[in-house]
Amino acid sequence: MGRLEAIWIKRAHLGPMDSKTSARAIPGKGLEGCASNSRIRQVTLIEREVWDGLMKSVGGNVSPSGRRANLMVSGFPLLNSRNRLFRIGSVPFRIVGETKPCNAMEELHPGLQAAMYEQWGGGAFAQVLEEGEITVGDLIEWVAAE
After folding, report:
1. Staple 122 to which of 8, 55, 58, 101, CB 3.0 to 4.6 Å?
2. Residue predicted with more confidence, 37 or 127
3. DSSP string of 61-78, one letter each residue
4. Bridge pairing between strands 2-10 and 17-20
5. How many domains does the chain contain in total?
């Protein structure tokens, strides 16, 4: 079982990442108020442990909000999790795929984009299955297909 460590919402496409303590997850959209949601890529996730390892491997000290993901999790491996169902608190999600790193990661720190291609280092993206509130500190767990 893992933990939700952080929530970030983008006010505008390519705009700043606003840190939140909670957010409303909405099926077909993602996180309420987030400008970068799409029907397929509704929520993006990164792992605290992977981010810390990436920073060590590239000799960086960049805030994880620079990844521009919506959610940071810990104790919850995302590697090869495509199509798996999980819950954050009581809200169910489905992993749709791996989030590939873009050129912005190279601008964030030299070598970061290449390093993120290894082992789902860029994280994953998911769809919201039911509306609900998620809060930093919520437990995260995989669930069996219903």
Report:
1. 101
2. 127
3. ---GGGG--SEEEES---
4. antiparallel
5. 1
Report pLDDT for 116. Answer: 92
Residue 72 has pLDDT above 80, yes or no: yes
Parent domain of 105: 2-27+36-143
- DSSP classification of residue 36: T
pLDDT grade for 107, boundaries at 50, 70 and 90: confident
Terminal CA-to-CA distance of the chain, rounded, Å? 19
* Residue closest to 3 by CA, chosen among 40, 41, 45, 44: 45
Residue type, 22: S
The CATH number of the domain holding residue 88 is 2.40.33.20
**Closest to 53 (Cα-Cα) out of 65, 66, 62, 40:** 62
